[in-house]
Design a protein that fits this description.
With about 150 residues, the protein is α+β, with helices and mostly antiparallel strands. The protein contains 2 helices and 9 strands, in the order H-E-E-E-E-E-E-H-E-E-E. The strands form 2 sheets. A 5-stranded mixed beta sheet has the order 4-1-7-8-9, with no helix packed on it. A hairpin with a 2-residue loop joins strand 5 and strand 6. The longest helix has 16 residues.
Length: about 150
């Protein structure tokens, strides 16, 4: 019986911990997953609001999501289960400008992104604009609900 319980928890933990998805969508769906997470299930979106393409390279300590070139209004997004120690950072390239900062960590997510609700996926949105980087919990029309956190 102990072996069965250990196997069950091992499968649940390894299945949830390794689930990183990366799909291109125009607008976030209301519920794209039936994933069960011990804590919070997150999707982070990075939207390009610059006329010229930008390149984004997102990484964590465990995952390298690679380089993605985004045209105007395109987005890069990924989903994961948060362990309260989750950290994703990104390099941004636009013409001769570069920027590097955390796009998901506990402090930023709790302060600026969507709030916890029972059985709801949480979201964090980034807008990349010519004057800098804005974060918000919902895809609201700019500038309502957006906070500028970084410059180029």
């Amino acid at each position: 019986m102990k072996s069965f319980i250990f196997l069950f928890f091992y499968l649940v933990i390894t299945t949830n911990a390794s689930s990183i998805t990366n799909t291109q969508i125009a607008y976030p769906p209301s519920n794209t997953t039936n994933k069960v997470c011990f804590f919070s299930h997150w999707t982070v979106f990075i939207y390009n609001r610059i006329k010229n393409p930008i390149t984004v390279h997102v990484q964590s300590g465990d995952d390298d999501l690679g380089n993605h070139t985004l045209a105007l209004n395109e987005n890069e997004n990924w989903s994961f289960c948060d362990s309260f120690k989750t950290l994703f950072y990104a390099h941004f390239y636009w013409n001769s400008r570069t920027a590097f900062f955390n796009v998901f960590d506990t402090e930023t997510s709790e302060k600026y992104c969507s709030k916890w609700a029972h059985n709801k996926q949480r979201r964090c949105f980034w807008l990349v604009r010519e004057d800098g980087f804005y974060v918000g919990g919902h895809l609201n029309p700019f500038p309502q609900g957006w906070t500028k956190l970084h410059d180029w």
